[in-house]
Amino acid sequence: MDQLLPEAEIQERAAQLSGWTVEGKQLNCQREFKDFVEAIEFINRLVEPAEQAGHHPDLEISYNKVTIRLSTHDAGGLTEADFKLAQVIAEIV
Fold first, then answer.
1. 3-state secondary structure of 92
2. pLDDT: is 2 or 12 the higher one?
3. Which fold has domain 7-90?
4. Percent of all residues in the chain with a pLDDT value above 70, rounded to a whole number
5. Of the candidates 27, 37, 4, the residue with the CA atom closest to the CA atom of residue 88
6. Are 18 and 46 contacting, i.e. CB atoms less than 8 angstroms apart?
7. Quick one: pLDDT band at residue 1, thresholds 50, 70, 90?
8. Element of type H or E holding 8
9. Degrees (nearest 5) of the Cα angle 69, 31, 24?
10. How many CB atoms lie within 10 A of CB 92?
11. Are 53 and 88 contacting, i.e. CB atoms less than 8 angstroms apart?
12. Residue 58 has what pLDDT?
C-alpha cells in the first residue's frame, strides 16, 4: 500500500500543480470546456493514463465542467500516486 504523504509535503507539491487544490484528503481540479462534447473528450483522454497508473480519479461532469478528485482510498489520503497522476492530467489539454 502507498504511504500517506506528510501535510507539509502535500502543500508544497500541490503548490507546484497549476489549477489543483487540496481539500481535506483530496487533490482537486476543475476544468471548463466549450461544451459537453469537449468535456467528454477530455474524460476519454484520462482513461489510458489512469489505467497505466493503476490509479483512477473520481470524476464529475456538469455539462461543460469536469471536476477531478484524486485520493488513495486504500491509504486514507494523499500519496505519491495521486501527485504523479495529477501531473499527467495537468498536461492533458
1. coil
2. 12
3. Gyrase A; domain 2 (3.30.1360)
4. 99
5. 27
6. no
7. low
8. helix 7-15
9. 30
10. 11
11. yes
12. 97
